[in-house]
């Protein structure tokens, strides 16, 4: 046997201070990309939010600085500045340089806090080239500065301060850590501030961007009730009244707002100590249990459900529901630093109790609203039963066995999902060229006839009666509704390949609506793309020497023609400005592609399907709440909203860029 390698104490590295954060930043902030960068703001601002939740602050200002940093100010009590008995440093320095140091442990500091782990400020310090901290207390300004987590300007105190009390933290993200970008997105900051203002009644949050001069202020006296109203903006609600309850149980608080609309989707926003928990948790389980029991009990008691009828299911009851759940508790048990799910078992009982009692009162006191809610759920139950039979005919058994695949699908031969692509093509003409020009090993073609159903306005049973969507569901292999399973997806890339005109964009929008409402996980995991076919072809030469330069928009065409003409001028070639510009640039002809059907198989492959040359745009859901509002506005029933959207955007359209 080979001699064993020396392995002793010298091989064991002990990380000190904030070293672990810089070596493994993803463990603390999730990633070092866009999300991780903006998480830094959240970690600092959440501390200010905690002051507001505790009742010690009512104003927070977040400023994106022109020199690349961010400053967060609040008018809270100010981080303590006296000498810490354990570290010998000021408490301010201790909080900013020691992991797991803060007012969120034990019985002191905060009774309710979003920063459970108490590592936020020190982590931001470790991942910043520079941090400046100022605390205003007792008529004095307490100042300290850091570089890469280490003190660069010692703690100092000066007389006078800009306000009576508060904290100001300024930081500059380290580009050696955040290699993708260190540029902060104003929209992200604005959305974060808006949500926090909804969740903390009576707090004013200001956002400033020194780079552009943009400014916004957020203040919502109605709290989560205002949030529900915003989430339902653009939707037809069954009643203008919003159910709202706020109750303290033991050492915790439960706050719930809900309202039903006429759509078929649910919007659920659960929070624990102002932290969004997208994967739910015990507060959501308690809410659903209480909601379902209360509605079924009311329906039975008032004869809205017949004796022989089954109880309404959770799926029936959540159709068209918009709800915000906010629980505040002293010791939240989140799953990991990302805090996606709440695990406290006692919270389930608290929320269930509040919903059962107070939503029960609401239904009794508002019989007209209660009847509409039950009727909507009853219709959903009938649709669910009707959809079940249709769905059983749609869902294919097994991912790659080829059973029940739609006849119009020209499938690929590979069974390796990671290399397979599905092109959803507008029209049989383009589909014919695509089938002929594709790589049959990895590329499948599914033609669509006309425009698919607008699923924003259709229940599952109606959707499954649409042959085009049924073909798509069969081809994808993931199922639909309660039987959806992302593991059955047969293609890594699903590409919408439609004409570059209004009709083509409408078809793409209809398809995106379908995926967003019924298969959001397919988008979230990065499988959906838009193909970008060229608008122009500049032809040079003839016969075997014929070459085409493909261009994707007017700007590219102008740039290409100008570039070629300037090249000819520099070479001393005489240019006649009166001649057609594409000929002056050395091209023999210019082609304008009105649709995919005008391209032959070779052209379609070269421009839109060849992985080496094509342009694909990946579809993301960066903000599901904003996406929901856009789909409701553009694809919903309220014509006035679309009309206003078009009129507001019309002024931004340059008519010279349009083809008629």
Q: Number of folding domains?
A: 4
Instruction: Give the proportion of residues in helices.
Output: 25-40%
Report on the biggest sheet. Answer: 8 strands, mixed
CATH architecture of the largest domain: 2-Layer Sandwich
Strand residues, percent: 15-25%
- Would you tell me which CATH topology of the largest domain applies? Heat Shock Protein 90
Shape: globular
CATH class annotation of the largest domain? Alpha Beta
CATH superfamily of the largest domain: Histidine kinase-like ATPase, C-terminal domain
The order of strands across the largest sheet is 5-4-3-6-2-1-7-8
Mean pLDDT: 85
Number of helices: 21
Number of strand segments: 21
List unreliable stretches of 5+ residues: 7-15, 395-403, 653-660
Task: Determine the structural class based on helices, strands and strand pairing.
Answer: alpha+beta
Distance from N terminus to C terminus (CA atoms, Å) equals: 80 Å
Gyration radius (Cα, Å) is 30 Å
What can you see in these coordinates?
- This protein has 4 domains: about 20-220, Heat Shock Protein 90; about 225-390, 2-Layer Sandwich (Ribosomal Protein S5, domain 2), CATH 3.30.230.10; about 400-535 and about 595-620, 3-Layer(aba) Sandwich (Rossmann fold), CATH 3.40.50; about 625-660, no CATH class.
- Residues about 5-15, about 395-405 and about 655-660 have low confidence and may be disordered.
- The chain is globular.
- By secondary structure, the protein is α+β, with helices and mostly antiparallel strands.
- Helix content is about 35%, strand content about 20%.
- The strands form 4 sheets. It has an 8-stranded mixed beta sheet with strand order 5-4-3-6-2-1-7-8. A 5-stranded mixed beta sheet has the order 9-10-13-11-12, with helices on both faces. A 5-stranded mixed beta sheet has the order 15-14-16-17-21.
- Strand 7 and strand 8 (about 215-220) form a beta hairpin.
């Amino acid at each position: 046997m080979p001699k064993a390698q020396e392995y002793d104490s010298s091989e064991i590295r002990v990380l000190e201070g904030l070293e672990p954060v810089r070596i493994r930043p993803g463990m603390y902030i999730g990633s070092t990309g866009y999300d991780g960068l903006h998480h830094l703001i959240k970690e600092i601002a959440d501390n200010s939010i905690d002051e507001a939740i505790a009742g010690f602050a009512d104003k927070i200002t977040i400023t994106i600085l022109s020199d690349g940093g961010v400053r967060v100010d609040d008018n809270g009590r100010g981080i303590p500045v006296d000498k810490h008995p354990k570290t010998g440093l000021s408490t301010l320095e201790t909080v900013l340089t020691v992991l797991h140091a803060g007012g969120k442990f034990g019985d002191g500091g905060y009774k309710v806090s979003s920063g459970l782990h108490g590592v936020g400020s020190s982590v931001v310090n470790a991942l910043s080239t520079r941090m400046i901290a100022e605390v205003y207390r007792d008529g004095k300004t307490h100042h300290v500065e850091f570089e890469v987590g280490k003190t660069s300007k010692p703690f100092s105190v000066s007389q006078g301060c800009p306000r009576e009390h508060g904290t100001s933290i300024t930081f500059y993200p380290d580009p050696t850590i955040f290699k993708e970008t260190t540029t902060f997105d104003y929209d992200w900051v604005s959305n974060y501030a808006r949500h926090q203002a909804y969740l903390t009644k009576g707090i004013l949050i200001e956002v400033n961007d020194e780079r552009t001069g943009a400014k916004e202020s957020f203040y919502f006296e109605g709290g989560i009730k205002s949030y529900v109203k915003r989430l339902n903006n653009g939707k037809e609600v069954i009643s203008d009244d919003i159910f709202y309850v706020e109750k303290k149980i033991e050492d915790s608080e439960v706050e719930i707002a809900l309202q039903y609309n006429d759509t078929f989707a649910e919007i659920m926003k659960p929070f624990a100590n102002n932290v969004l928990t997208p994967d739910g948790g015990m507060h959501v389980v308690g809410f659903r249990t209480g909601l379902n029991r209360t509605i079924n009990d009311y329906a039975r008691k008032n004869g809205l459900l017949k004796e022989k009828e089954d109880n309404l299911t959770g799926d029936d009851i959540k159709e068209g529901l918009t709800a915000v759940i906010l629980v505040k508790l002293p010791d939240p048990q989140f799953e990991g630093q990302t805090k996606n799910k709440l695990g406290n078992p006692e919270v389930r009982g608290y929320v269930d109790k509040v919903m059962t009692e107070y939503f029960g009162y609401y239904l009794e006191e508002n019989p007209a609203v209660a009847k509409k809610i039950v009727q909507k759920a009853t219709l959903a139950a009938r649709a669910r039963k009707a959809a079940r039979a249709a769905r059983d005919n749609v869902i294919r058994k097994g991912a790659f066995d080829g059973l029940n695949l739609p006849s119009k699908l020209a499938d690929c031969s590979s069974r390796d999902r990671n290399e397979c692509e599905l092109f959803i093509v507008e029209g049989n003409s383009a589909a014919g060229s695509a089938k002929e020009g594709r790589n049959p090993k990895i590329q499948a073609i599914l033609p669509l006839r006309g425009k698919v159903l607008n699923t924003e306005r259709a229940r599952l049973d109606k959707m499954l009666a649409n042959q085009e969507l049924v073909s798509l569901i069969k081809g994808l292999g993931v199922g639909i509704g309660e039987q959806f399973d992302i593991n059955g997806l047969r293609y890594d890339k699903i590409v919408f390949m439609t004409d570059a005109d209004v009709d083509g964009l409408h078809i793409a929008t209809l398809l995106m609506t379908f995926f967003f409402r019924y298969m959001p996980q397919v988008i979230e995991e990065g499988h959906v793309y838009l193909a970008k076919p060229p608008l122009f072809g500049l032809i040079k030469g003839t016969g075997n020497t014929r070459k085409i330069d493909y261009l994707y928009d007017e700007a590219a065409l102008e740039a290409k023609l100008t570039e070629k003409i300037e090249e000819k001028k520099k070479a001393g070639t005489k240019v006649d400005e009166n001649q057609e510009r594409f000929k002056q640039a050395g091209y023999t002809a210019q082609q304008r592609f009105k649709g995919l059907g005008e391209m032959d198989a070779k052209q379609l492959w070269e421009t839109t399907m060849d992985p080496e040359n094509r342009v694909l745009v990946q579809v993301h859901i960066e903000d599901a709440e904003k996406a929901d509002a856009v789909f409701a506005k553009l694809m919903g029933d309220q014509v006035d909203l679309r009309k206003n959207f078009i009129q507001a955007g019309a002024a931004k359209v340059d008519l010279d860029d349009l083809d008629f």
